[in-house]
């Protein structure tokens, strides 16, 4: 994985997806959007999975570059 791709995915995992989930959860409550909890949980689950992949990638990179 290139450094540029890693940095973009890290931004998505740390900033973009949590912000989207929070924003959607708030709008779902305010406007009564159906399945708000399920959609928010799905975004959060995907973000957690992406974070886990990035941790694995970082560990592999660190092992190879010691």
Low-confidence stretches: none
Question: What portion of residues is helical?
Answer: over 70%
Oligomer: single chain
**Count of individual helical segments:** 2
Helix and strand composition category: mainly alpha
Query: Beta-strand level of the residues, as a percent range?
Result: under 5%
Average pLDDT metric: 96
DSSP E strands, number? 0
The sequence of SSEs as H and E is HH
Shape annotation: elongated
The profile of the biggest β sheet is:
none
Domain count: 1
The radius of gyration is 15 Å
Euclidean distance between termini CA atoms:
17 Å
Defining key terms:
mainly alpha, single chain, elongated, about 70 residues
Describe the protein's architecture and organization.
By secondary structure, this protein is mainly alpha-helical. It has one domain. It is 88% helix and 0% strand. It has two helices and no strands. α1 runs antiparallel to α2. The longest helix is centred in the N-terminal third of the chain and has 29 residues. The mean pLDDT is 96.
Question: What's the helix and strand layout?
Answer:
Elements: H1 3-31, H2 36-64
Short description:
The protein has 66 residues and is mainly α. The chain has helices at residues 3-31, 36-64. The protein has one domain.
